[in-house]
Amino acid sequence: MSASESAIAKDANDSGLAAKNPAKRSRALLIVGGIFALAALAWFLLWLFVLSTRETTDNAYVGGYQVALSSQVAGTVTAIMTDDTQRVEAGQVLVKLDGTDADVRLRQTSSALAQAVREVRQQTETVTGADATVAAREVDLRKAQADLKRHLPLVAAQAESPEVVQHMRDSVAQAQAALDQAKAQAKASRAAVEGTDIANNPSVLQARANFRAAWVAAQRNTIVAPVSGYVAQRSVQLGSSIVPGQQLLTIVPLHDLWVDANFKENQLRHIRIGQPVKISTDIYGGSAEYHGKVIGLGAGTGSVFSLLPAQNATGNWIKVVQRVPVRIALDNDELDKHPLRIGLSADVTVDITNDKGPLLASAPQQPPAETAVYDKVASQADAEAEKIIRANLGSSADTSN
């Protein structure tokens, strides 16, 4: 075949390929377009049924109460009954202080209370004696008046000397003065005890208050746990001299924990109080999932409450997306099965399907934490004071005046 014939055949082949390539190119474009369309549809369905119904963040941390235990009185540490990582129960003795000075003060106030009761008893008896004196002086006055009345007719009949009658008049005046003095003394004696019984006399109440304060101070030399939990940050040492308010250790209750999830401000649009939440942590390698609910949203962003808040009005301003803490309550039953520690990081997923709930808390809630440990101290002090008062009332059946 000549060179011209070869060139003609090559041109014919190229023309055939050129006719076939557009069809292949169209099919390839259709396939690629279909793939992108399916991907877009899958992404839309994922957003519609999954991503649009939840908000997630890994900027979340487990929180809990940190009860800092301190002494209410000054003293020297004589015993430490617990240590870090140990569990303590509410009311359990944790630290003891030297109570010598407090015991001396308690004995002094105890005897002062007893003495006050006895003094009021004595004042009550003095009132009785003063009333008897008044009655005696009234008898003396009536007798003097009767004697004068009998002798006045004798003076008129000149059967009695005027000097005798004048002497009788002086006796009547003296008896009247003695009666007035006895009434004044009885009134003064009655003023100290009138209108109250012995136990409620102001002197007894004052002594009782002093005893109560001394008794409470003596009990405070024994420092007890206000709540149940685990000990952390123990700094108290044996023999240390401590002052009121000095932190000794920290108790962390690991039962009532929560999670503070810091969501970006553009994620808060559909987050509401009461929405269900799923939480996972790294401590169990993802094998434990916790369930909770949103109980509140922070009143401000984290930067506002920082030690050195940003001053955005300086002029050198760059917009930074802020985060707001969202408080999430955990299920205590799940916490009992898989205990957590405060400060652990967490991944949080909030179900925002129902976004009709409140954005802010509408009413005050019950106290988040309280203890009745210290209530017993006051009641025990009152019981001890009652014992002292009853022991010094004597055999008086009626202590009222």
TrEMBL record:
Residues 165-192 form a coiled coil. The keyword Transport applies. The keyword Repressor does not apply. It is found in: Cell inner membrane. SUPFAM superfamilies: HlyD-like secretion proteins. One of its GO terms (cellular component) is plasma membrane. It comes from the Bacteria. InterPro entries: AaeA-lik-b-barrel, EmrA/FarA_HH, MFP. This is HlyD family efflux transporter periplasmic adaptor subunit.
